[in-house]
Specification:
Length: 275
């Protein structure tokens, strides 16, 4: 049985929630099998799956395509899908229509969108349409060009106050959770203490109600340098690179395939073919 937003809300302050990103069926199945509570089909798929420099080119169609695969793999985990750039920024109608499409066509349980008080009307309208929403403040990658890069947010008094106000506005608009990305730990702790909804941190320290990481980062799937907040649980890049190299060598040396990988046929048939 899938947990609901109410199961998660009951855990606030008691038992932290785990979330990982996934973008395909097999990864979703594995994360689900591990018992991770939530899967995020992040628009980070632009970077980690599609090779874009940032998330801005990701479309609603991309999110639906990958979201469908993830939902097929996630039997227990609660699936949240990101609303990509320009799918909700222009107007409330776009926001509801696109959130509706994402839920209807994938079967996910919630959507996530970036931004604070300025998008409270979108959050309110989507929730009113019956779709649970996760907010996202702090480092919001869809605004990378106005933020001037991927850096820690909320360090000054004004910025920190704005993030507290944004969290309140998102909560009042009806979101059940807020992602806090790349903000100081003590600020995330304050936001968490002052909100009745769940805070899910990524680079926001130890005191959030839950944590999320991009799975490629935590598995060491890429050879790129990862942010300070990422804990690397495996060296998947190393494992894959060694396997691919060994395969190439074995193809070249004819040590793969071996007899055990080949299909047999009766010698009589072969003989008849040759006669
Ligand atoms: O797109 C994504 O993966 C995200 C996480 C960084 C929270 O939004």
């Amino acid at each position: 049985m899938k947990q609901t937003i109410y199961d998660f809300l009951k855990r606030k302050g008691l038992s932290p929630v785990s979330m990982l990103t996934a973008y395909d069926y097999h990864t979703a199945r594995t994360i689900d099998e591990a018992g991770v509570d939530m899967i995020l089909v992040g628009d980070s798929l632009g970077n980690v799956m599609l090779g874009y420099e940032n998330t801005l080119a990701v479309t609603v169609e991309d999110m639906i395509h990958h979201g469908k695969a993830v939902c097929r793999g996630a039997k227990e985990a609660f699936v949240v899908i990101d609303m990509p750039f320009l799918s909700y920024q222009v107007c409330v109608e776009d926001a509801v229509r696109n959130a509706g499409r994402i839920v209807k066509e994938t079967g996910c349980q919630a959507v996530k969108l970036e931004g604070g008080a300025e998008y409270a009307d979108r959050i309110h309208a989507i929730v009113r349409a019956g779709i649970p929403v996760v907010g996202h403040i702090g480092l919001t990658p869809q605004s990378v060009n106005t933020l001037g890069g991927y850096k820690v947010q909320g360090k000054s008094l004004d910025e920190a106050r704005k993030l507290l106000d944004d969290a309140k506005a998102i909560e009042e608009a009806g979101a059940f959770a807020i992602t806090l990305e790349c903000i100081p730990e003590a600020l995330a702790q304050l936001i968490t203490a002052r909100s009745a909804v769940l805070t899910i941190g990524i680079g926001a320290g130890r005191y959030c109600d839950g944590q999320v990481l991009v799975y490629q980062d935590m598995l060491g799937y890429s050879d790129a340098r990862t942010a300070k907040f990422v804990k690397q649980y495996a060296d998947l890049h190393g494992v894959m690179l060694n396997a691919f190299k060994q395969y190439k060598t074995e193809c070249e040396q004819r040590t793969f395939p071996g007899e055990e990988h080949a299909y047999a046929i009766s010698e009589d048939v072969i003989k008849a073919l040759k006669d």
